[in-house]
Amino acid sequence: MHITQLNRECLLHLFSFLDKNSRKNLAKTCHKLLEVFQDPLLWSLLNFHSPVELKKDNFLLGPALKHLSICWYSERVKVCNTEDWMKNSFQKDFCKRHENTVSDFLLDVCNRCPNLLSLTLSGCGHVTDDCILQLLKNCPNLKSLKLENCVRITDHTLQAVTLHGASLQTLHVDFCRNVTQAGLERVREKCPSVMLRAERSATMIPDSKPEKKLVLEKASRKSVQL
């Protein structure tokens, strides 16, 4: 029995066990399998391991997408998560090559995937508060938002959660150093039903310009002397 003799439900089930590249390669073999590849029901879950994968034409975005994860654990994440004023010219050029990759992709998700239920972002150093705000507005069914080591995320994201996260049940902002204790307390007050986790976030040193850090260090030394 040839694979193309299977009915559509069986083919969708078989495709579901393959990764994105394997699905695309199989879809190239005949029109019937290409139609299966393009079926939105196949793409309810998407996992990406680097921003580079977002540029590959090996997946389909659509209303069927329920769960999305972009987790980048490469050594290069350290470069993107370094304060901008500390980066050398080489590091700045490196970051510019993919600065908007994840953000642009998420905006595309906002427009095409209104039924998204969960989003996990890890190591995405260029994702901004505005991007998360747009996603909360356009994906009203979002129940889980997990952000880890996303250094541009601030209390503005927490405020957006209190205003537009009506369906949110779980919120993680781990190792997001520009999130403050005051912002976390606001979420706890406004959204008591949300399971909030912020490992290390409010205890880490936030980004600031060198002159501001110098003032903080002087103030700290004075308090110690007193």
TrEMBL record:
<dbReference type="InterPro" id="IPR036047">
    <property type="entry name" value="F-box-like_dom_sf"/>
</dbReference>
<protein>
    <submittedName>
        <fullName>FXL22 protein</fullName>
    </submittedName>
</protein>
<dbReference type="InterPro" id="IPR001810">
    <property type="entry name" value="F-box_dom"/>
</dbReference>
<dbReference type="Pfam" id="PF12937">
    <property type="entry name" value="F-box-like"/>
</dbReference>
<feature type="domain" description="F-box">
    <location>
        <begin position="9"/>
        <end position="46"/>
    </location>
</feature>
<dbReference type="GO" id="GO:0005737">
    <property type="term" value="C:cytoplasm"/>
</dbReference>
<keyword id="KW-0833">Ubl conjugation pathway</keyword>
<dbReference type="InterPro" id="IPR032675">
    <property type="entry name" value="LRR_dom_sf"/>
</dbReference>
<dbReference type="InterPro" id="IPR050648">
    <property type="entry name" value="F-box_LRR-repeat"/>
</dbReference>
<dbReference type="InterPro" id="IPR006553">
    <property type="entry name" value="Leu-rich_rpt_Cys-con_subtyp"/>
</dbReference>
